[in-house]
């Protein structure tokens, strides 16, 4: 289905906000083309996992900035925090099931190590990509990119789109 990424992210931020008093949330919308094809609940899960990580791994608070922009024919969403950061050697394993960074600065922070593996699966099923850049003690930025769809302006275009993206309706998450 056609979904507006902005409305999905706004509702995730509203829900996550209540879990913290020490973080400021910023939503920066830099493009008007924000329609993607996909599953609203699954996409909400992606941003819930990323934003809850941003909260959890910045125990001293700070800004959490979500930036929505266009690159080529893709819609990109950055989720940026000012938290603990991720050691370089951990980056290649980050999206692997059950992988957790074992550092003295985060040993007390709980989790199962599934959040990012789920993010990767859902994003992949939407023909998107997820990547991360990070600096220890400075913060992390996770970027999700998804194929942008031109909103159909005629019925014929809509039929074409529905055909073209028919497979996008089937989303499998283990
Ligand atoms: P779960 O999400 O299943 O509750 P988790 O948060 O440990 O557990 P993931 O979300 O998959 O699992 O994250 C994997 C690891 O990556 C985490 O243990 C954490 O060390 C690191 N990590 C993830 N997001 C961030 C972030 N925003 N800042 C710093 N480290 C992060
Ligand atoms: Mg997590």
UniProtKB/TrEMBL annotation:
For this entry, the protein name equals: histidine kinase
All residue ranges annotated as the Histidine kinase domain in the record: 1-150
Taxonomic classification: Bacteria, Bacillati, Bacillota, Bacilli, Bacillales
Q: Where can this protein be found?
A: Cell membrane
Q: Which organism is it from?
A: Anoxybacillus mongoliensis
